[in-house]
Structures are given as C-alpha cells and as structure tokens.
C-alpha cells in the first residue's frame, strides 16, 4: 500500500488525534505534550499525516545550543515505513543551522527505538539511572551535526 505522507507543523485541529496517538503508544498522557499544545503556535512540534490521517508526531526543542527530541511516536500499523525517519529528519534539518547536536533520552528497555535512533546516526554517550517514573534508566544518545565530531 502506498500512502501520501505529509510532514508538517502541528495545528490545533490535530489535538484530538495526537492525544489519542500518545495514549495508544505510551499508555499515559505526557505533560510535555499538553504543554506544547497549550503553547501553540510553537516551533518543534510536527505531525505526519498519511492519506489525511495523523499517523505520527514529534516534539523537539532547542535549549541553549543543543536540540533535543522529547517525544516521537508512529501509529503501530504505520511503522517500518520510514515515517519515524521522516519526522526525525524534518526536525534535524530545521535545527541544523543553529546547533551542533541533537540529544535524546530513550528507555533502556526500548530496543526498537534505540535501533531506530542508531540507524539515524545517534550514538550512545551515557546512562541516567532512575530517569523514568518507574525507576527505569535512560540511555542518552547524541547525533553530531556538521561542526561536531564525537570521540567514540
Ligand atoms: C521508534 C519509532 C518512532 C520508529 O518509527 P518507524 O516509522 O517505524 O521508523 P522507520 O520506518 O523510519 O525505521 C527506520 C529504521 O529504524 C530501524 N527500526 C525501526 N523500528 C525498529 C524495530 N521495531 N526494531 C528494529 N529496528 C527498527 C530499522 O533499521 C528501520 O529500517 P528498516 O525498516 O529498513 O529496517 C516507532 O517504532 C515508535 O513509534 N515506537 C513507539 C514509541 C517510541 O518508542 N518512541 C521513541 C522513544 S520517545
């Protein structure tokens, strides 16, 4: 099946679809998501639309000179079709000129996301013990951009 995929900034009309997607994927509402919705219009909040259906979203921010991916999710039945890569690349290209790196935290148990980010050029640079509410650790991953080379 071939979909028409559009990556675009979040619009208020996407609110319900994005909240439903967040609950479906992460099983708990994220305060980050609600605060980004309330702060509309805001940079770094993108959705993927597949044949008119919101099938993924990404929330990223730039703090000082470091860009961070805070949330990324693709609806189950749309995975492994490059939508996650398209969302991540859209954000990375939007910050490339203003930052040297993109950073993120990923659950130590989330092998799928780690594999995905590694394929996107992110590398493991550390671990934060007890980062998540349930006590789980986070791996810190960084993707260096044009001016930065990691000693890894
Ligand atoms: C992680 C996630 C966003 C990836 O989205 P996606 O649209 O499926 O990713 P892509 O199709 O662009 O995948 C690109 C590559 O990443 C790797 N990859 C993606 N999902 C993978 C998985 N489940 N297992 C192993 N490798 C995977 C593959 O190398 C894939 O290329 P391939 O399909 O040619 O083998 C999606 O699985 C998801 O929403 N997961 C739940 C939420 C989550 O964990 N978010 C990240 C933490 S915030």
UniProtKB/TrEMBL annotation:
InterPro entries, per the entry: AcTrfase_RimI/Ard1, Acyl_CoA_acyltransferase, GNAT_dom, NAT_camello-type
Protein name per the record: Ribosomal-protein-alanine N-acetyltransferase
Any one GO molecular-function label of the UniProt entry: N-acetyltransferase activity
Organism for this UniProt entry: Methanooceanicella nereidis
Domain N-acetyltransferase: residue ranges: 5-146
Encoding gene, per UniProt annotation: rimI
Key words of the record: Transferase
Record's signal peptide: none
